[in-house]
Every structure is written in structure tokens, then in C-alpha cells.
Amino acid sequence: MAALFEKILCPVDFDDNSMAAVDYARDLAVRSGGKLFLVHIIVPIPPPPDLPVEPYPPGSVDQAKARLERMAKERLEGKVPYEFCVKVGVPAVEISSTAAEVGAQLIVMATHGRRGLAHFVLGSVAERVVRESRVPVLTIRAGG
């Protein structure tokens, strides 16, 4: 019998909500005999015109990789096969493209449950991924 979800993508931003999503995705991967793919997205900040600066802090990709590696060892090591990567870009776009790259059959991600003005101003990465994803998306809200 084939695994229900052989490849599960889980975006990580290191807050409590995304850690709850990682735990849930890990448990699903264990039960279904699948592999977990973690991705952290660094959002670039456009530099002022005519200034030769990086669109994100130097070393931030390496720092994010190190942080992902520590988190994965604590929560996943010996429990489920996994891979991780760090991308730079618009979170919803990068999540969707990563899902396609790894052939994910499910995306498990945190939602922050913003409403009203905060939702209007900040938008919702999870909402956009749910709307645009070609695979099922399971949203997790810590404490919810």
C-alpha cells in the first residue's frame, strides 16, 4: 500500500504557530510513511534606489539554515525523513513553487488568525496558499 502523503511541505517561520504545524506535519508523515520538507522564506526588503545594499541582511540565509537544522534535529531526527531549504521572496509564491519543486502532495502550514485591519494590512500567506495551491493545504493554529 502506498503512503497517503509521501511528500509533505511545511513552511516554517519559527513562531509557536509554525512549530505546532511542524509537529502536526511530522506526525502525519510518520503515520503515512512520508517525507517532510521544511522551507523558511526570507522576505526581501527593497533597498533605497542607487544604494548598493543587499535586499536582506547579510548572513540571514545561513542563519536561517542553521536555525532550521537545529529545529529539525530537535523535533524530527530519528522520527521521520526530512529535508529543508531557505528561499528568498514572496512567502505565498515561494511556498507554492517549493511545493511544485518537491512534488508535495500536502502542505501543512500555520495560520495566525489575523482579522480586521491587521488582516487587511498584512494579508494572509495561508489564505493565499489555500486559494492558489494545486495540492491540499492543512492550516494549523496553535492553541486553536
Please characterize this protein's 3D structure:
With 144 residues, this protein is of the alpha/beta class. The chain has one domain (10-140): Rossmann fold, CATH 3.40.50. The chain has helices at residues 16-32, 60-75, 91-102, 116-122, 125-132; strands at residues 7-11, 35-42, 82-88, 106-110, 137-140. It has a 5-stranded parallel β-sheet with strand order 3-2-1-4-5, sandwiched between helices. Helix 2 links the parallel strand 2 and strand 3.
Quick synopsis:
This protein has a single domain, classed as Rossmann fold. The protein has five helices and five strands. 30% of the residues are buried.
Indicate the topology.
Blueprint: E1 7-11, H1 16-32, E2 35-42, H2 60-75, E3 82-88, H3 91-102, E4 106-110, H4 116-122, H5 125-132, E5 137-140
Parallel strand pairs: 1-2, 1-4, 2-3, 4-5
Helix pairs in contact: 3-5
